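Report of the visiting student (M.T.), summer placement. My assignment was to run the structure pipeline on a short list of targets and document each run. The first record concerns Cytochrome c-type biogenesis protein.
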Amino acid sequence: MRRLRSPLDGLLRAGFRGPLLTLAAAWVLALALALPGGARAQVHASAPQALPPVLEQRADKLAHGLRCLVCQNQTLAESNAPLAQDMRKLIRDQLAEGRSDAQIMRFFEDRYGDFVRYDPPFKPITWLLWLGPFALLALGFVILVRTLKRRAGARAPLTADERERAARFLDTGS
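After the run finished, the structure tokens were exported:
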């Protein structure tokens, strides 16, 4: 099988190994020095804007009422997932624009469905979610009652021989 050659193979064989490695090291160093500045600029660009205390309370209340779509068992306020951070920023931006809590909740419901709410609304599509546990509890109770009735009805009365044996056992046991 024939190996494909790169243009650098000839240079490396000709003795340019030292200068090429120096050039590569300089290139990596330049990239490493350039990255922290770009990362710093990105952090400042995504830093949340300061809101008045009233709006901060509303943002916190909304973040506690929405589910993190990554974690699913945490609210937006509890989650540290990048998506949750973005969603909290969206809440703050919309509050700064003057939207009401209902409008913000509707925005997230339209975008992600009722699942995004930590307490889904009671409507026909979520009836099973709300009533399912109670229906299962009622079904379990019905099964328990039927099982107990069958056990009570399944016992046949004692025969005369069984009664005599039980009486002897009770008399001799005391």
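The two ends are 97 Å apart (CA to CA). Residues 53-116 form a domain with the Helicase, Ruva Protein; domain 3 fold (CATH 1.10.8.640). I thank the supervising group for their guidance throughout the placement.
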